[in-house]
């Protein structure tokens, strides 16, 4: 889901309800009759029985994942192949960021720009992201345009939801941090608007993500960061390992 900015409180997308919840506890009162002397004698085990049970329990060793199937050679081969594919893909993203692979070779929407990108995760064209292309050809979009746009920047909802200050201000109340706090501006106004714009874009393309973080395409990052320019040392970029 996801960029990681130095904005207020938390960088996780949250669509929790505005209604506060509280934990409720119920106390149960158990009513019972005292057992007869005979029943008590029958139910209470002897010391010898207790010792025997302890010995049996001590001998039962629980092995984690004991019931899980053992990976066969085919599974291991597929796993290693997937790891290698992911490694090659990440190296390609790094080469995109440092300019080894020019933008013209991977950008298909003609709007990608690496000048404001911060790390490898952000170097993807919207035309490489399946959910972006699906969003551009959705029924809702085709009601407003005759031909599906070739870039998410031309999505009918992008500018009004991600670049307009008042739309972003009105969107703030629907987002909360992981601990249920409302977003509030602590840094610069541009930093705050960028953080909300990222979440508005994610909802526009993916819908409600909850705590899932997904990097935006390069064109969207560039448009949002150009509209709300960062000051010195304001950008940290998307980080999939950030837990805030």
Secondary structure tally, helices: 10
Class per helix and strand makeup: mainly alpha
From the spread of the alpha carbons, the general shape counts as globular
Q: Report the major sheet.
A: none
Helical content (DSSP H or I, runs of 4+): 40-55%
What is the alpha-carbon Rg in Å?
Answer: 28 Å
Helices and strands, in order, run as: HHHHHHHHHH
Q: Which blocks of ≥5 consecutive residues have pLDDT under 50?
A: 1-36, 240-244
- What is the percentage of strand-forming residues? under 5%
Mean pLDDT: 75
Q: What quaternary form is this?
A: single chain
- The total of beta strands comes to 0
Distance between the termini: 13 Å
Biased composition (Polar residues): 43-58
Biased composition (Acidic residues): 17-34
Biased composition (Low complexity): 1-16
Region (Disordered): 1-69
Kindly describe this structure.
By secondary structure, the chain is mostly helical. The chain has a domain at about 90-225. Helices cover about 40% and strands about 0% of the residues. The protein contains 10 helices and no strands. It has helices at about 35-45, 45-60, 75-100, 105, 130-135, 140, 160, 165-170, 190-205, 220-225.
């Amino acid at each position: 889901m996801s960029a990681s900015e130095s904005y207020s409180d938390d960088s996780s997308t949250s669509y929790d309800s505005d209604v506060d919840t509280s934990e409720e506890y119920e106390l149960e009162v158990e009513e019972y009759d005292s057992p007869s002397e005979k029943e008590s004698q029958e139910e209470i085990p002897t010391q010898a029985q207790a010792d025997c049970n302890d010995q049996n329990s001590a001998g039962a060793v629980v092995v984690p994942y004991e019931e899980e199937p053992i990976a066969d050679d085919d599974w291991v081969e597929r796993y290693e192949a997937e790891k290698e594919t992911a490694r090659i893909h990440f190296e390609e993203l790094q080469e995109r960021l440092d300019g080894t692979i020019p933008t013209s070779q991977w950008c298909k929407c003609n709007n990608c720009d690496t000048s404001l990108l911060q790390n490898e995760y952000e170097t993807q064209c919207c035309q490489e992201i399946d959910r972006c292309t699906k969003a551009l050809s959705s029924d809702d979009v085709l009601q407003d345009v005759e031909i599906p746009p070739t870039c998410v920047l031309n999505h009918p909802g992008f500018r009004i939801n991600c670049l307009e200050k008042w739309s972003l201000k009105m969107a703030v109340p629907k987002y909360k941090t992981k601990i249920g706090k409302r977003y509030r501006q602590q840094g610069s106004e541009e930093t705050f608007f960028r953080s909300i714009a990222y979440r508005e874009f994610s909802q526009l393309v993916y819908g409600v993500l909850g705590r899932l973080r997904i990097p935006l395409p390069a064109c969207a990052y560039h448009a949002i960061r150009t509209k709300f320019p960062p000051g010195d040392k304001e950008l940290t970029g998307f980080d999939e390992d950030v837990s805030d």
